[in-house]
Amino acid sequence: MQQDIFNIQSKEEFKQISLEIFKQQFKNNKVYRSFCDLLYVHPSDVKELKDIPFLPIQFFKSKKILSSLDEIQETFTSSGTTGSITSKHFVTDISIYQESYLKGFYHFYGNIKEYTVLALLPNYLERNGSSLVFMVDDLIKKSNKPESGFYLNNLDELAKKLIDLDQKGQKILLIGVSFALLDLIEKQQFNLKNTVIMETGGMKGRRKELIRSELHSLLQNGFGVSEIHSEYGMTELLSQGYSNGNGLFDCPPWMKILTRDTEDALTIQQPNKTGGINVIDLANYNSCSFIATQDLGKVHENGTFEIIGRFDNSDIRGCNLMVL
After folding, report:
1. Rounded CA separation 323/103 (Å)
2. Is 143 in contact with 113 (CB distance < 8 Å)?
């Protein structure tokens, strides 16, 4: 299955593997099976992607979402606000996650060995169980560059290194949470030529939430770059979408975004309509590959998508979820 997922070549292949995984998860995932039963949906009824039930993401806060009996290798947890219940994603085969983010990065950016990876993720480093820290830590190691590394509060050191490496013509990936990137440009103005600035969203309560265009404008001016890249991922997924500017995200071939009607959660919409974001993440076949998130967004005809905000009364969680 793992080999099939990461070698998808067409929409038809994606559909066929999705339907296979749905059958497998219906059979082996007790929580998902109960959810499907409540909706009176059986695999014999499911012929198209729009027929597949999408499990509300809130279930990851209260249930063990597993489609495998294998031993759990890693447990990823969401950040959450103080006192709130966090999501838990139980991963029985960490190699699938590693293959997903390495091939996903390669799909959009090329070989990680071409980059020096500088990570500014203070809030994630201050807790355990972050899937983002796990991924970035591995990207740092795989980059095989001695200058690659994490930064917590040592912004002066980071600014000096960033300017020095950029001037030497090295390709750099600076990945950071929004508030920390803003802290950095308040300390130092940059004029970078060889650096990809990638924000992972969210102010984490450290700053006032900004609309994406305002945030990106500040970061573009502060770093002296024409585009701000973004990553769209979350604790409950094993795959990420990426944007190389303008807030338009794209998925690797084993991931797809659909939108659901905000008034009827079981109805999948046509492209270009704003709705709730549903994610198909085929890498997540040992957990649940079909998740209804609390994000609002829009999918375009070519499969790219944008995040517009969140449903009211849902907790703000920093996975590129900025209010518009």
Report:
1. 30
2. yes
Question: In this structure, which amino acid lies at residue 97?
Answer: Y
Cα–Cα distance between 209 and 260 in angstroms, integer? 26
CA–CA distances in Å: residue 311 to residues 74, 152, 199, 303: 29, 31, 22, 22
For residue 87, CA distances in Å to 75, 100, 279, 316 come to 10, 21, 16, 13
CA atoms within 13 A of residue 197's CA, in its CB half-sphere: 29
Can you say whether the dihedral through the CA atoms of 234, 243, 216, 275 is positive or negative? negative
H helices present in 227-275, as ranges? none
| CATH fold of the domain at 2-72+249-310 | Luciferase; domain 3 (2.30.38)
Assess whether pLDDT exceeds 70 at residue 265: yes
What does the alpha-carbon distance between residue 39 and residue 53 come to, in Å, rounded to a whole number? 8
For the beta carbon of residue 182, count every other beta carbon within 10 angstroms. 19
Of the candidates 100, 124, 228, 247, the one whose C-alpha atom is nearest the C-alpha of residue 174 is 228
CA-wise closest residue to 60 among 76, 82, 36: 76
Strand partners, 76: 89
The tens digit of pLDDT for each residue in 188-238 reads 999 999 999 999 977 666 777 788 889 999 999 999 999 999 999 999 999
Look at residues 100, 253, 106 and name the one whose alpha carbon lies nearest to residue 173: 106
